[in-house]
Amino acid sequence: MSLPQLEFFRARLEDERERLLECARRTLEQMQEVATEPDFNDRASREEKFLLEFRVRDRERNLLRKIEQALQRIEDGTYGWCQETGDPIGIPRLLARPTANLCIGAQERHELLERTHGAVALEEP
């Protein structure tokens, strides 16, 4: 992968990381601003909203971890190469999923293994 391509993906990953961190900051600010609701239904609605936010933030936390790993792979020169086979992942796949660490063939094998054996997939961390 060329240096301009690596820089493109680095910028894209860093932008996504910043967007996710900003969402987390906004959620934290909203939670700190919450006044105690005197009405039980209002309080329950607000708590349900926060539970949904926590689920989203948890998924985003996992994505942040994947972003950090992808940025580390850019630094160590392994970004864009399948961690299982050593084959190139391919620009179209990286455009669709910049955190990908497996080529499409390896990812399909992992998903098949998960479906057929109920095993925990060894897919992209």
TrEMBL record:
Domain Zinc finger DksA/TraR C4-type: 77-111
Keywords attached to this entry: Metal-binding, Zinc, Zinc-finger
GO molecular function, one term: zinc ion binding
PROSITE patterns the UniProt entry points to: ZF_DKSA_2
Short name of any one Pfam family annotated for the protein: zf-dskA_traR
Domain DnaK suppressor protein DksA N-terminal: 5-74
Zinc finger (dksA C4-type): 82-106
NCBIfam families noted in UniProt: dksA (TIGR02420)
Protein name: TraR/DksA family transcriptional regulator
Species per Swiss-Prot/TrEMBL record: Nitrosospira multiformis
Organism taxonomic ancestry: Bacteria, Pseudomonadati, Pseudomonadota, Betaproteobacteria, Nitrosomonadales
